[in-house]
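haha ok so turns out i had the wrong file open the whole time. this is the CORRECT one, sorry everyone. sequence first:
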Amino acid sequence: MQNSITPNGGTPSDILLNVFSGDGPVYGHRKKHPQHVYEITIRIDDAPGPFSSFGASVSMQGKNPACGVPHGFPAGTIMAPDGVVPFSLTRISDTEYRGTFATDPLVDEVFWEGRPACEWEFVAVGFGFSATGAEGETGFSGSLDAKELASGRPVRRYYRKSIYPKHPEIGDLKGYADLGHQSPEQFSPENRNHLFSITATIREVRS
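then structure:
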């Protein structure tokens, strides 16, 4: 049974879920008043050029698989839906960006008759930057999971300058994303002096 609340398609505020179902698209719904809200500040140091294309999102997972529906392989397997909730980043300087997100952005709800309500849990907050957003450009991506969020410590990742704006060996491959590394020592010696970094700092603003 398709999601009964939005049977004919979602509104712009709804979130298209990833779910194994033959019933058509299934949509999650944003909370009007989430309780756990955070501010993320992202700083880019020593970049080889500007980033005019950027975005961020929160990944959510249903924590009770029984709220899903069986799918074909393996036979009878039930997996809870998951979804990605985008949010806006604002450029506050040439090197810093800021946004606000919730770790409880979705309503717990029943999607299929006879199944329990899906209870959502936070997986990670992620972000990505590219030079202009043109096809074939490298996306420089990072994320913080629940443990990193709880620690309150900034998370820094390093990336090669040589793959900005495009990776010279990959060409125009659509959707290429580089996840970087946590330490310069994880790069080959010839690349360690040619890196830039992206640092994400998060603080809770309401709970």
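The two ends are 35 Å apart (CA to CA).
again sry for the mixup
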